[in-house]
Design a protein that fits this description.
This protein has helices at about 5-15, 20-30, 35-40, 85-105, 115-125, 130-145, 160-174; strands spanning about 45-55, 60-70, 75-80, 110-115, 150-155. It is of the alpha/beta class. α4 packs parallel to α6 (about 130-145). Mean pLDDT is about 85; it is low at about 30-45.
Length: about 170
């Protein structure tokens, strides 16, 4: 991600706290779009990453799964057992693993879909992260996202995330 895009994302998070004079100054230095979404056009992205986590707390067992698609073609998929953690931690770990694989494969423009509304809202800055273990996972996810060129994280209904769901359940059995 180039410095201008990083700056745009940082400034967008704090735009409501800036004065008109500060915004005008920034706009004179960098053409600042009205929103991050304006600078991250989903129509430019041909890769879609779907992730999911599954947890069996009664068995101290969790799995993660995900897949990257380009059109209908599956570029890569993963299903891993991650041991003992909560469902929300598994959701974050699936997201993190998916982004790591995108970076490893030099796929830096990606739309990301998760069926955990909590994770999506935390990553997008709509919800605060309060749990200490989740704070670390949240920070790791954002750090990895900063290594991408164009990205977005959106909520997807479970019935539209069945492939990632099956992979996460496969991860439970590994």
């Amino acid at each position: 991600m180039n410095n201008e895009k990083k700056l745009i994302k940082i400034l967008e998070r704090f735009r409501d706290k800036l004065s008109d004079k500060e915004i005008a100054l920034i706009d004179s230095l960098v053409k600042l779009p009205n929103t991050v979404e304006d600078s991250v056009s989903s129509s430019d992205m041909s890769y879609k990453l779907f992730t999911d986590g599954a947890s069996q707390l009664d068995r101290n067992n969790a799995g993660i799964g995900g897949l990257l698609k380009s059109g209908q073609e599956i570029v890569f998929s993963f299903a891993e057992n991650i041991g003992d953690c909560t469902n929300n931690e598994a959701e974050y770990l699936a997201l993190i693993r998916g982004i790591e694989l995108c970076i490893k494969n030099k796929i830096l423009d990606v739309e990301i879909f998760c069926d955990s509304e909590l994770i999506v809202r935390q990553v997008n800055g709509d919800y605060k992260v309060k749990n200490e273990r989740m704070i670390k996972l949240h920070a790791k996810a954002l750090d990895l996202c900063s290594m991408l060129g164009k990205w977005s994280v959106s909520h997807v209904l479970r019935d539209k995330n069945t492939e990632a769901d099956l992979l996460s359940k496969e991860g439970l059995t590994k």
